[in-house]
Amino acid sequence: MAAAGMVRDRRYIAALSEVGQLENALRSRPVIDQASGILMHVLGCDADDAFGTPRRISQRDNRKLADVAEAVVRTRGLGRAGAPRSGSRRQTSV
After folding, report:
1. For a tag site, which of 48, 50, 61, 94 has the least CB within 10 Å?
2. For 61-78, how does the pLDDT look when each residue is reduced to its tens digit (9 = 90+)?
3. With 70 as the cut, is the pLDDT of residue 94 above it?
4. pTM exceeds 0.70 for this model
5. Backbone angles phi, psi at 51, to 5 degrees
6. What pLDDT score was predicted for residue 1?
7. Which among 88, 1, 93 has a CA at the least distance from the CA of 45?
8. How far apart are CA 65 and CA 32, in angstroms?
């Protein structure tokens, strides 16, 4: 009976951890979606590419995806000089 109680406790703790992770994901999802929309507009790309760009940056720089997305939203997808970031596929006329 003690072993069954320990197994139940471990499962309960694992479930609480998963709930916490899911709550965090739900809180960060709107900013990630907003950043994807901004990147679709600025880069002229589809939704998959727009999501993949901050994901690659997140992995490369070892930063949370939500933090990268917040930076995109904060800068509206533009660099400090107000021009689209490098790698833009959008053609601009001068």
Report:
1. 94
2. 999 999 999 999 999 877
3. no
4. no
5. -80, -35
6. 81
7. 88
8. 8
